Amino acid sequence: MVNDTMFARGAESSVIREIFSYGLERKAQIGADKVFDYSLGNPSVPAPAAVRASIERSLQLPSDQLHGYTPAPGLPEVRTAVAESLNRRFGTSYGMGDVFMTVGAAASVSMTIHALTNPGEEVIVIAPYFPEYAVWIEKAGATCVEVLADQGTFQVDAQAVAAAITPRTAAVIIDSPNNPTGAVYTRETLDALAAVLSAANADRDEPIYLISDEPYREIVYGVEVPWVPSIYENTVVCYSYSKSLSLPGERVGWVLVPNTCPNASRVMPAIAGAARTLGFVCAPALFQRVVADCVDEPSDVAAYARNREVLTQALSSYGYTYVEPDGAFYLWVKALEDDAEAFCERAKRYELLPVPSNSFGVPGWFRLGYCIDYDVIVNSLPAWKQLADDYRRER
Amino acid sequence: MVNDTMFARGAESSVIREIFSYGLERKAQIGADKVFDYSLGNPSVPAPAAVRASIERSLQLPSDQLHGYTPAPGLPEVRTAVAESLNRRFGTSYGMGDVFMTVGAAASVSMTIHALTNPGEEVIVIAPYFPEYAVWIEKAGATCVEVLADQGTFQVDAQAVAAAITPRTAAVIIDSPNNPTGAVYTRETLDALAAVLSAANADRDEPIYLISDEPYREIVYGVEVPWVPSIYENTVVCYSYSKSLSLPGERVGWVLVPNTCPNASRVMPAIAGAARTLGFVCAPALFQRVVADCVDEPSDVAAYARNREVLTQALSSYGYTYVEPDGAFYLWVKALEDDAEAFCERAKRYELLPVPSNSFGVPGWFRLGYCIDYDVIVNSLPAWKQLADDYRRER
């Protein structure tokens, strides 16, 4: 029989995708330059030139070497390149055995949730949060437990996490630099979270795992992004090259089970088992090689910084309140009425397409993806002003 | 807590992968040309030249168009190209809405099982069968029910399927051309299977689905591979370009929910929901475009036919019994003792690496993947003869 849960997950478009589709239609109606689509996290910054050079170099390889199956955890030289890059940056001693190449961040996180939870257990997420976490947690048979971030700074509220921990808590997922708020968790935040988890572990046979989802690690505006496994040893890191190398459609990333994780010898096989069980065979072979060649390519953060600057200055002058984003390419803005969905519907009148905060598990805000063209942002500013004026007139 | 099932699935290497790893070690010890590794289904035939031309053409596109997220079901022009190719070949009237691009055949089948089964239901597989079916069925919470193929022809035994159907039967998986036997199911076989399923459906609200896993459709030696949805309407087809275009590492394929399937409007969203739920975001973007460009490229069957010829003639003359393979690039051979695992261990003495049938759910046979270099096959023949002589001397 057709599975009702799968049907529901497929039939309910994600709100983000729905807004994106509306934007495409609207652009067809009135012209692409007249619609200001802030819905998606599809980077406008091109992939570095090294990506193309790497692909062209790989095309010289014999076909069966180039396009053949790789080992399930990835090509040894690619896993080694990833480990060594991390070692250079974080003073760690990882080896290829700590790295499992994946079909992008969604695969990384979905596999890790399956590896680290059992049916009936609980996984804590920090609201607002990336909505697919809840879908993957449900599929693993676990329960998604939402804990509100500090509503001023959008840092993790460690005491709120402490209050949510039960004997069934298997893992906590964090995502810094954060989607949707742009917050980057400070060392103090992570120290406090680690203290809470370590205290809880004293009563348990197996520790609570910290799943650190870090696709935006490289997109950061002058602040430190602490290396989480050096703060809490039971951390598994999930990564993707979707944002740092602007390759979201190519689906390549990794899971790191650090050799400093006390249970690494049980966690890594469980990651491999989850990959196999869910139907992932290996990460795309050609783009594994791209990763090896481009592992230390810098992301073009300057382009996002320029977008952030023009957008925040303008919104601020129009009276919008937002969280100062330290990383990622999202701006988290207070809606001008309590009902964020109503606000976003009204924004459509001005051809503005933000995403209401409800899809991230909290009311009253909206998310702007400013990874779009600079000109689109600049051209949208009068519309943002008119929208704010509109609300002001009503008050 | 680390999930025990995931740990077990990761810790138990697949037998096939274990033999492959042994082969790599052994090659390092005694020289690559002295080890005759028949374990994997990694095509030795290169990808058609059109693949490289397509990649080079795509590299001219703007980066965000080329490497950006595609819609979850795939790029519209790619889905259309796939549908139209099928229409030309099978006289069907499919459209892009019937095609969902996937991260290879494993994703196709895993997603389809999740979409079409509920926990507690049963999925029938035809033994010998591709061992990962059982892993994916277990993950969906369903039970894998093994039904023996006809042990002479290795066609589906429709009466045995009829006997195995219960009110909990959700689906039957078939795989023709077959891995591991090389059998191609005839029209008569499929008619008989369709009759059995249709008869069972008379008592049910929702039909039994037929999942037709067809990665080897193009690798066939002069026989017809009937189009299954034209024989049984409740068929979902799973495909991959791993074998036909020799791209197993790149992970690209599709699921077809034909518009002639009465429940297509419920099945397709469930496929999409399964993709989302398991952590697949989209099929790799660059290779989606390769598919559109190469959808009608012929496979180089001649190379496999030559391998098949030299191997079957020699084994036959040494006294081995095998199933005459009509398709795929596997030979299914009777072990020279009852215990196939013992036979395969003994074969190692001659540096021969077959896969014992136990991993495919039946005793007494072994599988040879003859998608390897012709010279390896020719050089291995004296070893196959010595192995047979060995057994003869003991009798």
UniProtKB/TrEMBL annotation, chains A, B:
Cofactor(s) required for function per UniProt: pyridoxal 5'-phosphate
GO molecular function: transaminase activity
Boundaries of every Aminotransferase class I/classII large domain copy: 38-370
Listed PROSITE patterns: AA_TRANSFER_CLASS_1 (PS00105)
This enzyme's EC code(s): 2.6.1.-
Enzyme class: transferase
Gene3D superfamilies noted in UniProt: Type I PLP-dependent aspartate aminotransferase-like (Major domain) (3.40.640.10)
InterPro entries for this protein: Aminotransferase_I/II_large, NHTrfase_class1_PyrdxlP-BS, PyrdxlP-dep_Trfase, PyrdxlP-dep_Trfase_major
Keywords carried by this UniProt record: Aminotransferase, Transferase
Matches recorded under NCBIfam families: PRK06836.1
Family: Belongs to the class-I pyridoxal-phosphate-dependent aminotransferase family.
Name of the protein in its database record: Aminotransferase
